Amino acid sequence: MSASEELEALKAERERLVEEREAREAARAEARELEALKIGIADEQAILKAEAELGQVGVDIATVRSAKGHGVVIVKRPTHAQYRLLVDSLRADKMTLSAINERFVLSVLVHPTKADFESILKKESGLLDRVADQAAFLGGLVVGEVQGK
Q1: What are the counts of helices (DSSP H) followed by strands (DSSP E) for the chain?
Q2: pLDDT attached to residue 91
Q3: What is the CATH number of the domain that holds 46?
Q4: Could you tell me the pLDDT band of residue 33, with boundaries at 50, 70 and 90?
Q5: Residue 2: C-alpha distances to residues 16, 56, 58, 85 (Å)
Q6: Does residue 15 lie in a domain region?
Q7: Is the Cβ–Cβ distance between 137 and 76 less than 8 Å?
Q8: High-pLDDT (> 90) share of the chain, %
């Protein structure tokens, strides 16, 4: 095989491999889009159900969308007892903030299920703090309220 024949064969092989990779990427992009649409529909259905059962978003419930596309988390406004436990736990400073937040969020979690939420947290651990913040704001938390122990 001459050098020019080898060069043409290598170019053809590279082109074939690039086309295969592009086809795989296109298939993955289509699958991601399909999954995102399914999650989006499920999210809207969950929000609709929560509004019907618990009340208005921003007043009675809060929605927090996953930054990584794992869907929406819905929490309800905490009861007085749940909110006091949060504030007292923060002031006592005997548990880690993440343990306090997890206990608090699980006590007000509406959607998804606890198991699904924990599964999401394994992939997106920062979501816990965002959800806890929104639940605390529903309960009337004012920034800086628990400072000055």
Answers
A1: 5, 3
A2: 84
A3: 3.30.2220.10
A4: very high
A5: 21, 75, 72, 80
A6: yes
A7: no
A8: 77
102, part of any domain: yes
- DSSP E strands in 10-142: the ranges are 61-65, 72-76, 109-111
Phi/psi of residue 57, each to 5°? -65, 135
Q: What is the spatial order of strands in the sheet that 61-65 belongs to? A: 61-65, 72-76, 109-111
85 contacts 135 by C-beta, under 8 angstroms: no
Predicted pLDDT at 92? 87
Q: Indicate whether 144 belongs to any domain.
A: no
How far are the Cα atoms of 49, 77, 99 from residue 110, in angstroms, in the given order? 10, 10, 19
Does any domain span residue 48?
yes
Pairing of β 61-65 and β 72-76 = antiparallel
| CB burial readout 30-56, b (16+ within 10 A) else e | eeeeeeeeebeeebeebbeebeeebee
Q: Could you tell me if 74 and 63 are in contact, meaning their C-beta atoms sit under 8 angstroms apart?
A: yes
CA distance 29 to 118: 26
Distance CA 52, CA 8 (A): 66
4 exposure class (CB count in 10 Å sphere: 0-12, 13-18, 19+): exposed
Domain that includes residue 86, residue range: 3-138
